[in-house]
Structures are given as C-alpha cells and as structure tokens.
User: Fold these one by one.
Assistant:
Number 1:
Amino acid sequence: MRDWLQRQWFERRRLSPALWLLLPLNGLFVLGAWLKRRLARPQRLPVPVVVVGNITVGGAGKTPLTLWLACQLAEAGRRPGIVSRGYGGQSDAPRAVDRGARPETVGDEPLLLARRAACPVWIGRDRAAAARALLAAHPDIDVILCDDGLQHYRLARDVELAVFDGRGAGNGWRLPLGPLREPLARLRSVDAVVCNGEPDPRLPRSTPRFAMKLQPGRFWRLDDPASTCPAGELRGQRLYALAGIGDPGRFFRTLEGLGLDCTTRPFPDHHAYTPADLAFAADGVLLMTEKDAVKCAGLTAGETWVLPVEAGLSPALIELVLEKIRGRKAA
C-alpha cells in the first residue's frame, strides 16, 4: 500500500482518481495540521535555533545538510548541538545519542549524526525539551540545529530551511492525497529552500534557493570501517545494492553514475533490516548507504561496502544562516 501511494503521489503531476475516496481524510489532516500550529505555544531557547526540515513526507537530504551546517558553523567559530525526534527509535524522553547506541533505541538518522558530527546529538519527542537537556549537559553550545523539525512548532526558531529532492512536490496535494505535510505557500515564510536535485518549478521564486549536491566519497567496508576503496575497484564484480531511504532510486542512480552495475533492492524509509533482507546478495558484493549501514552491522557475513556522501552547497547559505542568528546571545 505504501509503495502504491508513493507512486500515486510522485509519479503523477495531478491527483489520481484512485485517491478520491481519501478526500475526507485529507480534510481531517488539513484541519488537524491547522489546529496543531494554531494551538502551539513556541518555546524560545536561550540560543539561536536553525531548523532543517521539509514539507513533504520521506527523506530529501536533511541529514547531509544538517551535517554540512554543523561543520560550517564550527568553522565559523560557533559551537553547534543537534536535536532530532529519533524517528524509528524507542525513546520518547530526551536523551543523548552516543556513537555506540543501538539504532532501534535512538533511530537511524540520529545515530548517523552522532557518528559523523563533531558535536553533541540529543533526541526526544519534544524537541524543545531535548534541546534544553542538551544545553544543560553542554553549556558551551551556542546554536541548536534541529533535524527534521519544520512542523514541530513547540520549538521557536530563528532560521528555517526547507529541503526538496528531485521528486519535488509530487502531485501538489496534502496528505493522504499527496506527499505534502503543508501547502507550498508555507515556503514563502521559510528563510531558504535547498534543492537536492532539479528544483520543482512550482516552488515560490520569492524565497532564496540553494542547490545541494551529494558528493560520493570512498566506500568503506561494513565489517572494517578503516578499509576503504574507490568505486573503480568494485567494477566487474557481481554487485547488489539496497537502500531504505526516502528515494532509494537516488542511491541507485549514484551507483550507476560511478560506473557500477548493480542488482537493486529498495526498502521503505527507516526499514528495520533482518538477515533475510540481505540474503539476496549472498553470492556477491553488497553496497548500501550510511543510513542503512547503522542498522545492518552484523546481519551479513558477505562482503559489504558502504558509500558515504558529503553535501556540497554554496558558502552563501552559511552566510545567510550566520546573518540570521547574529545578535542572539548565548546562555
């Protein structure tokens, strides 16, 4: 059902007649979203808050952008901390995420952030509470990055960045008729739109827009992260690839662009893998994303390589962010 809905949302530019029966649910969703925002009582933190999110369901590149922002802020002399919902984890109360945490406890994306970012990462259903807990544990932090928090209006924010991938706004309808959590008009109030792929022509031109390109690095081996190799060393082997991200096709296209011919297997975003899921690659070499890797360690005895990516963006984006948060006093 989920895959069918994704096809109806993103492979069509108009509402499919097959979805008309969901119109009443769409009305309830729109009403609920309006009430949620209307009744929210934003909580202001003593440090600036930069929210990275999207108005569509599924991943669009928020985590690589958050990592890029954390690095750029640190290079600019700021001391960032990261908060996230911890989607897919079992913890609702605020807690720190360390590199050795289990993904089923803290979520796959927060664990990836904790392993890649040189700053503290905390999770919690209430992002304002998670941020306050982070600041209490790390009083030197002077800016908070909120990963995937655009619709979490309990947390007041100083900067909003909305991310889109190449699928854009799909059919342009809100859930469950389409992929939108909020209408496209919401983008007029964000500080910038970041496009991870070809921009949707329907995005408002009045909002600053930045292109983001995910640059693949060297593969590293799942059972020995210190062992790395370039894509060229994998060519000519029997290759398999899996991806459980918002748009698995994006990862498969990246591999194709590296000259790698793979048998591919897409999985739902945040999929909880089992050894049976990986068995299709038993007679060859398996390739996966870093997000999948945090959940697949120990599940396969075969040769498995992980492809890291780095976000590439114009320095003008971090200049915009710094300008927006300049003047706020840290705790």
Number 2:
Amino acid sequence: MRRPQTELVRGGLARSPFDETSEAIYLTSGYVYSSAAEAAAAFSGDIERFVYSRYANPTVGMFEERLRLLEGAGAEVCRATASGMSAVNAALMSQLKAGDRIVSSRALFSSCQYIVGEILPRFGVESEFVDGKDLDAWEAALSRGANCVFLETPSNPTMEVVDLRAVSEMAHAAGALVVVDNVFATPVLQRPMELGADIVVYSTTKHVDGQGRCLGGAILCSQQFADDHLTNFLRHTGPAASPFNSWVMLKGLETLDLRVERHCSNALELATFIEGLSGIRRVIYPGLESHPQHALAMQQMAKGGTLIAVEVDGGKEQAFAVLDALRNVDISNNLGDAKSLATHPATTTHQRFSEEERAAVGITDGLIRLSVGLEDVEDLKEDFAQALRI
C-alpha cells in the first residue's frame, strides 16, 4: 500500500493510449457505441462502460479515486458533485424520507442549517439541533432514536469541536448514520471514518482546489450506502461534477498536503501573535491551548487547522474597520485559498441566521473569520498589527 503523499500524486491515474504525463480532460457529455446491441447492454448493466457524463466520466473518476485513497479506511466509494452544498444535500436527501428523524449540531454553515432546518422538514423529516459540544445533549436527543446525524467539526465559523468517536457511538446505538462535513479539517488533518463516521462530505471548492478557481464537492461512503441510496439519487437528480472542474481538483490534490502544512503553520503563528494584540476580545483556534476543546481537537486532528476566528472589541463597526484596513488579506467569503481571506460572518456567510441563532453559536458582531493563506507569516502579522492600530 502506498503512503498518502504518493497517492495524492499518483492515485487513480488512468492514462489514455497516448500515455500523457498530466491526466487527460475528457470534456464530453456522452459516448458512442459500436452497435445498438452494445448500447443496450451498457444501459442494462450487462457490460460496464461509460454511457453519460451525468453518471460517470473518466476525468471525474480519476479525481474520485484519488480522493477516496486519501480518505483512507472506510471510504469504499467517492462521488464528486458540482459543489459542496450539492454534496451535503445528496448525502442527506438520498437517505431520508417522510417520518425519519435527523439530529444535527447547531453550529453549521448557513446553507447546511437551511437544508436541515427548513428543506428536510418540508418533506416530513423531523429535525432537531443540539449543542455539538455537549455530549449530554447528544445523548438526550438520540435517546428516542434517529435515522441520521449531521455535524461539522471544527464548525464554521466559531471552530467548535465535536467528539466524533463519542457521538458516532451514540448515533449508531440509536440506529443513525453519521454524516460529517470535514471541510475545515480536510482529509489531511482529520479522517472522520476512522473515528466512527459513516459518510464524509467536502466542498472541494475550498482546500482541494486551493486557488479559488472552481466549484466542486464530494461524498465518501461505503459501497452499501452508495448502492442503497446514493448512486441512483445522483444519477437521476443530476448534481454532476464538471470534467474540467474535476481535473482542476485532481491537480489540486497533488499539492494539498504541502499547502495544508503551510496553512497550518502560518495559522498557528498568526493566531498566537493576534492573541497578544490590544483590541482583541478573543482568538478562537483549535491549535491554541486557550481553545476550550484544544485537547479533543488535537486527538482528532493532526494540526490545528487553517482557519482562525478573531473577535475584536467594538462590535461590527470595529470589525468592518479592521477588515477595510487589511492590505495583505482580501475580504472574501471563500476559504482554503492560497491567499489569506477574511469575512464578517454575521453579515455574510451567516447573515440569514436570526440574532438569537447567531448568539447561540457564538457569532457576535465583532467576529471575523480568517482563512490563513500561504503568504509570509511576518507580512500577515504586520498587516494585522497595523489594522488594529486604526
């Protein structure tokens, strides 16, 4: 078995008869057959071959296999999708039906919260949110059974950490499958299936691309889940990944390990530096000992991650002033990019939350989410120091 860094470069490689060095991009919607009988056999499943790129595509397939190999034990299947949210939606909608019940951590990305809290209930699925940090809350919510558990860890944007092993054990005892959004940690830092999760979803738009170019998503699961729920759902609802975008993601995987290593070292050094600046109410970073769940984060993750939440004194007005004063950090709601990016969650990514909902997950008016990039960390430190002197 090859090591992860080798799989990131060579995993899933399927060269054409031209023996190209770089993986080929198969920009095709359909495929031709030598005879009508061959087409019939392909659609009946009597022979295995590509029939339509909404179902499968050679470039997409290479990306799926490479990501599957990186995810490790338990990831028998990977299916790429058009975006991270299409991956979340498919992972949940493919398995849930009227009368089912889902229990979710409360601290979620806004669009994920919308699916769990508003879309699923329209179809007769009962949804319950809990404090993801509180194991007693999970135990109480799962005491009457459930079909699915959904969570992010670390959460967006306040870096809450959920005990994956403990929650997975409770979920399985309640009859639920566990779906984990692993975007913030990436498969380089955290492998939820090794801690008990059943399904992992990604927005590959983020760290996998890593340069803000393309949208993409992925679902990793067992062969049984794919056969019983996912495959037909994806085929017939159509959230297919673009071959070109999948090629970009495939090339992004080659450097993912190197980039995440640099992101994390920069993030730890910057978070430590910002903690010492005046005008800061708190810095939330799992890699800091000041993080309330630092020990758990370091058990589940190889490093502290690439994102920092910074709460400044002075609320929204001061947060806006700091953002506007930054010179080496761009204001953007994306993350995982080579460039450092910052956003104000209360007015961007989580603006649809009510004031009470934001308060429940710690999103204050003074909170800034920072995705730490690959710049020289000294430039980033100098930038924050000058921005906080305004």
Number 3:
Amino acid sequence: MTKPNSDGRALRPATTMVHGGTMRSQFGETSEALFLTQGFVYDTAEAAEARFKGEEPGFIYSRYANPTTRMFEERMMALEGAGDARATASGMAAVACVLQCAVKAGDHVVAARALFGSCLYIIETVLARAGVTATLVDGRDLDQWRAAVRPETKLFFMETPTNPTLEVIDVAAVAEIAHAAGAILVVDNVFATPMLQRPLALGADVVVYSATKHIDGQGRCLGGIVLSSEEWIAENLHDFFRHTGPSLSPFNAWTLLKGLETLPIRVKAQMESAGRIADHLAGSNKIARVIYPGRPDHPDAAIIAKQMQGGSTLVAFEVKGGKEAAFRFSNALEIVKISNNLGDAKSLITHPATTTHKNLTEEARARLGIDAGLLRLSTGLEDCDDLIEDIERALAAV
C-alpha cells in the first residue's frame, strides 16, 4: 500500500491518484495487476475456515472483494479521506445500495428534488415499495430541509451540483440539520468530482460516485463507488453488498485505476474550457441564460466559493426558441457529439427534457428549471478554440 512520505506528510491528490492503494504481486509489476479470477484457493481447510471467520486476512470470492477492485477502493479512500469503500458495477448501483441498506420500513427520507431521474425512481418507487416514505425539498432552501424532518427521518440525500441545472447546495449546513435530526447525509458528488469538492470533509456521512463519468473519463466502462467511515460500511453496507452482488468487475476496476492517474489534469483542462465556453455563450443574443458554477452571476456563487475548489466541467444554457432551436443547435455541432453521458474526453451535449429527465412531468421539469431550450454541455479535452468555433457554427443555425 502507498504510505505517506517518510516525514509523515500526506501525499497530495495528484500523487495519490498515481500511487494510492497500489498492491504489487511477487513479480513487482509497475502497472497495477489485473486479477481476473472468480475465487481464491487456500493452503488448508483450516485456512479456509479461518478466512471465512474473519480470523485470517485475505480474499474469498470476487463478488465480495478482489485485489484489483480493492486497489481502486483504496485509491479513492485516500483521495476522499474515507475510512472504507465498496466499488459497484455502476453509479446507480452505488446509489441503490446506500439508499436500501441504510433505511427500513417505517423510516423517512428527505431528498433534494433536483435529482437524476433514476435516483428519483429509487426514492419514490423502490423505497416506497419497502415501506419507506420520502419528502422532496428545494435543496437550496435550508428551511425546507428543517421543515421536512420527522421523528422517523433517518437519511438526507442530495446531489450537488445538480443535474442538469448545476444548482449548488450548502453541504455543511444540510449536514448540520441532518445530524441534529439523528439522520445521515448522503451526497452524490459526481458532477463536482473529488478534485473540486470533498463532501466528507464538509460533514457528509456517505459519498457516492458514478465512476463511469470523470473517473473513467474516456467512455470505456461502467462503475460506481460508495465511501464512508469504516464503522458505517461495516454496520450498514458490508453484508448487504456481499449478499446482493452489485460488485464491480476486476477489469473495470483496473480501467478506473488507469483513469484516476490522469483525473487531476483532465478535470483542470475541462474546467478551464468550460469556463471559457460559458463566458462565450453569455455574450450571445441567441442564448437566454447560462448556468456555470465558475461565473460570479451563478445564484449560489457564495456557497461555491466556500465549498468548491473550482467551477465545473459542465455548462448548462438555454437556447432561445425552445426545443426546436435547441435541436437545431445540437444537430449543427460537428465536434461536440450528442450523448447523455458526461465527464468524457470528448465534448458531449444533451437535451435533458427529452432524455435524462423525460420521465418527469412538464410541471416538475419547470419547477427544476429544465426548460425546452435547455442544453447540458460536458466539455472534453479538445482544443477550446475549436470547441468555441463549433459552437459559433451551431449558433448560426439557430
């Protein structure tokens, strides 16, 4: 395992992303080893018994844990400052695991209403079938969080910045409300990435990621991860994870390890391009509004300055003329591709009202600010000047 410097200083994030959690086999490989195995063998039956009892350390079955997967978990733990972690097959597997293992029939959940559609489905449908009630609030309104608390409230859930309108919620303030109510706070940190925001350090109890996005960063594989204290993982997630089987494949874990090596430089470059593009769009008379956490006109600029280390790799903007104009703009792009993914090396654009949030009612979309002309741009690693020229061509078609 990677240790701090000999003088006791912790490694900085960029170094941690290259070396954190590394375990080498007897061959001393430079790159992390890929252990494509389902099971593991034991020298004796007694050794097998001891390992299953937890009396002897080691791996048992790759559904439980795997050396390559554990390296990915350890590297993310080092970056987040978490006591333990479990890697999952997708980001939604991470969310589903946390929300199901942390509550039971009769409990109550409070969640920000600005959520990815699949997260809403888990909260409003899956948990409801298990007898868990939920209240959705405006995440930026602290009074609504307070008012929603009941004696049976056990969990708060949010994503920040939100998808797709990039609202930013005060993590520390909401954590204080949750803890006063005897509840835990779970934060989906996928849009900020661990490079720009650390929810655990702000008071959150659990943080989840879709590693499919920036952590892979090149559109290759699915993955997710849950990070928390060692105690919370042991008491809540450990057995649930083992018996329900949402584990990440070793190959995907290896791919994500390779993605982490370049995460800091990718996020920095993408954020710089996103900021330039946001400023450029703000100067166009064909754009009704631009939402970017790095701009001073963002409604949550004060919170962003307090809890984030940068803006975002994403820009949301509304094209004047509604859906028809947004479609014309998207279809005229040549470099930027139409896709519902994000955090990729390739710049991607999506129309949330007809894709990621299409299952919401028109009223619900309006309440979240998802207008017919709204587009979400995920900036990639192309030359920013080429991206701006591509956007200018597309604006000419509107």
Number 4:
Amino acid sequence: MGQKNIQVENLYEEGEQWVQNLGEKTVHAKRMKGKFRSLKWIAIAAWTPFFIGPYLTWNGQQAILFDVEKRQYHLFEVTIFPQDLWMLTMVLLFLAILLAAMTTVLGRVFCGYFCFQTIWTDIFTKVEEFFEGVPAKRRKLEKEPWGFNKIKLKVSKHLVWMAIALFSGVTWMLYFGVSWADYFNGAASSTTLIITISIASGAYIFAGHMREQSCLWVCPYARIQGAMVDKQTLMPTYDYYRGEKRGKLKKGEFVDGFGDCIDCNQCVAVCPTGVDIRQGQEYGCITCGLCIDACDSVMTKVGKPNGLIRYASLDELEYKKPFVVLYKRPRVIVYSTILLTALSILVYGLFNIAPMDLKVLHDRQPLFVQLSDGSIRNKYELKIMNKTDQPMLVDVGFQSTINNLKSQKELNSVAIPSGNVKSIYVYLTAFESNVADNNDVIFTVISDGATLKYKSSFFTPKSMR
C-alpha cells in the first residue's frame, strides 16, 4: 500500500499503523462501475423529492408547507397543528430506531447511501470530475503552479458548487413559505437570509471541502456505531484467509504461496473516506460497498472468484457460522417491535386527526353561584380550536342526568376562524334538589358531522360537603 497517489499511506510510528487518511491530503476517490455504485445513484435519486417538494400543489396551496407564523403544517390533505405534534415524537422515534435497526443488520449503510453528507459529497465530487478530470488528473492539477487554465477550472468548479449549495439552502426555506420572488425583490427577512446562507455554507464547506473528514470527525454516528453492531452484522469485509499473503502478479501468473489479493490497491482507490478495508474494520468505513465493486472487477480480470471483499459477518468469516435469519436475532426483534408500534401509532394518528379540538375549563372562582331563586349556576369556558384551513361553524350542546339542567342561551352556528382557538362561555343552572350523586355534564361540539365530547362536573353546596 505504498502508493502516495492513493492518498492513504502506511505510516509506522512507534509500532502504530495508520490506515486511513487523517486530513493531510485530499481523497480523490476513483469511480468504477458496479452494482453498489448503481445503488448509490439510486439513493441519490431518492433525494429528488426534496427538490421538487416545495413546488407541488394540493387543493390550490403548497402541498408541503411548514407555516411557522400560523403554526400550521400542511402535508397534502393533512393539516397538523401544535396540538398534534405528538406525532413528531413518533416520527423521530421511528427514524431513530430504524437507524439502529439498519446499523445492526448492515452496519453504516445509511451513511453509505442515504446520508445527505454522503449524497452531496458524491454530487460535488462528480462536478469536480467533470471540470478537473479523473483522480490522477486532479492530483496533477493540484501540484501545478497557478495559471489561467488552473484558475479557470477551479473557479468554474467552485461556482457550480456554490450554485448547488445555494439552491439547497433556498429549497429548504421554500418549505417554510418563502418564495423565490422574496429573494429577488428584497422581501426575504434577515432571519430567512441568515438560515439560507448558513445551510448553503454548510453544504459548500462540508460536501465540497471537508468531505470524508466530516464523517470522521464531525458526525458522532461514526463513533457510536461500534456499539450498535454485533458479530452477526453484515459489513464489507476483506477475506483475510483467502487473500493473504498478498502478492503482485508476475507476468500475469500467480506465485505459489500467495493469496488471491494481488495488492492492486483498487479497493482503497475507490473508497470515499480513504479506508483500506484489508486492514480490518475502521470507523471511517461507511459500508457503501464500492470496494466490493472494485475488487470483483479485478478478480474477474485475473480469473479468480468474486467475493474476496464482500458483505459478511464476523461470525461467518471468523467462526464459519451460517447467517442467522433476522427474525431469530433478539436485537432485531426488539427494534422491529418498536418500529411497528411507532409506525402504527403514527398511521392511526394521521388517519384520525380531528378537525377541531375541545377543552372545557370549569370556573373555580367561585365553583358555583346561588341565584336569587335558589338555583345553582356553574360557569364553563369551552376552548374550541379549528384545526382546518377553512372557517367552521359549530353547534354547542350538553348532556346530563341532572333534571332540568338549563343553559342561559343556545349556542348554535358559532363561527371559528381557521387555525384559531375561540373561547365560548356556557352558564348552566339547576336546583340542588335535582342534582343526584352523579353530577357529570358532557359537553358536545358538532361541526360538519364531526363530534367532540368533553366530560365535566356540575358543583353544588351539597357536592362540596
């Protein structure tokens, strides 16, 4: 592994061997065709909805809109208000456990295929390859003195990088009700501009300049993923027993005593984080599988079986144990149970979001008032929230076993603006002699076939004894 142009060197210092790039040089990963490279392009395509989401419309309005000012969050047909943000807890729980489950089964496969840092870095390096050429040409260009050609290529690359980064920042803000016109006519607020520039700068710096160093030193997941894998986790693994002792081909022929690895370093050349998979598992490995593509292509050319580097578990490689099916692994069972529970609660919540919310507050100062005719009056405050994007009319009623319980006035067709909470005061009166042991009062609010109920109590001097 002595090739400096791979940007990963064996550095022996006091008996310690460094096997990955630590930021001293830029990793220019080689791109090779293969099934895992194709999977990465598919994963990049999976981010396409992020860029088209703000432009979709539904029922005459933006389909996906996080209206912070009005505290309304629109997701196609569903409108979510802060009272329903418990569902966000289920979403975060689902995603956290999904990440843990994916790591248990396939290591850092999320990092390798779906993480926005990985995706944006792949896009940025593709732009770099378009302007500056393959890795060898890029390394050569870095060593050249500054001249017109180098300045032209570098400036062109960075301008495209900045455009992608800025487009990413603006696209993010479009989800919050900002429009392109706001940026061009000066209507964008200072907060909007600061957030946009911060996101764009982050994309430009992390994906364009830091690249794999973001994964190694900034992302905490690289450090904790070791606690989430086990001996049955499938990860890109070099078959040491088959590959060693490494040796170069001599005149196209293998030398007796050498393993299948011909020490071509192609697995290192394609690694986006500069890891040498042959040195064992490193926290810098994002399990993208590109080293498998590279090794398989070489094995095919030299007439050896594929799989010298493959997805394998420690149990399989070290102890020759067969693969354990997922439903027999306790950790996977626990994660799956939590996933299904969170998903079920989330789906139930989405399909059962009430168009309104009702809370009833009983006046406590005083709990009741005795009128001149001897009857008892209780005061209630009904807080009704319209959780739709249209004004609504509601009818307020009540039910009780108390005889001759009366309301001061009828409350029908009460208008409630969209997204607002309206307080309605209800005064109920009854004679104490008509109030039995059960003093429950059930308020009902009806609007367009939707009905909400809330149970309260009717207090009298007798109920306080």
